[in-house]
Specification:
GO terms for molecular function: RNA binding. By secondary structure, this protein is mainly alpha-helical. The protein is built from 18 helices and no strands.
Length: 309
């Protein structure tokens, strides 16, 4: 129940339950600490952290993550320096904080002292360099990486594509022994963003031949390509396929359809997509409000029981 309260943002209720516990073990302390951090009550979390008579790697990493999330990197560094047995999760958390503010030199200094780097650590650095447009450094790390996963490959493809280096993006794509939907989307959107709209459509066809299932992002990209080359008939077929796949009510797909139909002079079609989306969104909002009402009623009942327990 402690975790449940914290996950729903009910930190006060979680703390009341925590305070009434006759015995608290390390799991209980860490759950309460995580509740504060998840709800960005970092200073309250730190006060609890200081009260802990026993801490493990989870305790330290949770608190370091908390300071990183609110941008207090110096506080996070002080904690990491004080951590008795530094582990890769805590070091990666601080490193990712510097990556987030694009201080890649500092991030790399932390990366260099991590003894047992896991794939998450490597990917964070590669993604950081890619986001900063420093693709040579990203590529060098990628080649040094002992074991790559799908995220590693897709990050490079996306980085090269966003930088307009489509030939390099294709080169990485072709090296892959296996590709997923994200791999194809990175290439398809890269072509569309860089003005190679026919290439975007062609790779969508190749994706379908490889029996990879397109998602909302795929449809939004290829519909945008259709708009720019005035491929109205192709766009209509994509509209039908998106409907069959269940993506027609996705906001990005609907916007792409409305834009395509409008630019192709099919205003009635664009209006129909808009009206269908508005009707679906209204019913979705009503269902969400209904579910939220039931959830809040359940939480009130639980709170009532716990306050009288």
């Amino acid at each position: 129940m402690l975790n449940g309260f914290a996950r729903n943002g009910l930190v006060i209720e979680a703390r009341r339950l925590f305070d009434r516990m006759p015995e608290r073990n390390l799991v209980s302390w860490n759950a309460m600490l995580a509740g504060y951090v998840q709800n960005l009550e970092i200073e309250e979390g730190f006060r609890l952290f200081e009260e802990m008579s026993e801490r493990n790697a989870v305790s330290w990493t949770t608190m370091i993550n908390g300071f990183v999330r609110v941008g207090k990197l110096e506080r996070a560094r002080e904690l990491l320096d004080a951590m008795p047995c530094k582990d890769v999760a805590a070091q990666t958390a601080l490193m990712s904080g510097y990556v987030r503010i694009m201080n890649m030199d500092e991030a790399h200094r932390i990366f260099d002292v991590i003894k047992s780097r896991d794939v998450v650590c490597w990917n964070a650095m590669i993604a950081g360099y890619a986001q900063c447009g420093r693709m040579e450094e990203a590529m060098r790390l990628f080649r040094e990486m002992p074991k790559k996963d799908m995220v590693s490959w897709n990050t490079l493809i996306s980085g090269f594509a966003q930088g307009g280096q489509m030939e390099k993006a294709i080169g990485i794509f072709k090296e892959m022994s296996e590709r997923n939907t994200v791999s194809w989307n990175s290439l398809i959107s890269g072509f569309a963003q860089n003005g190679f709209h026919m290439d975007s459509l062609r790779h969508f066809i190749l994706m379908r031949r490889e029996a990879k299932k397109p998602d909302w992002s795929t449809f939004a990209c290829v519909l945008s390509a259709c708009t720019n080359v005035a491929a109205f008939r192709v766009g209509e077929q994509l509209h039908s396929l998106a409907t069959k796949r269940g993506f027609i009510n996705d906001l990005f797909v609907a916007n792409a359809l409305i834009t395509m139909y409008s630019k192709c002079g099919r205003i009635s079609k664009a209006r129909q997509v808009f009206n269908d989306l508005r009707q679906w969104r209204m019913s979705e909002i009503l269902e969400t409000l209904k579910a939220l009402s039931i959830q809040m009623r359940d939480i009130d009942i639980k709170s009532s029981f716990s306050s009288h327990g």
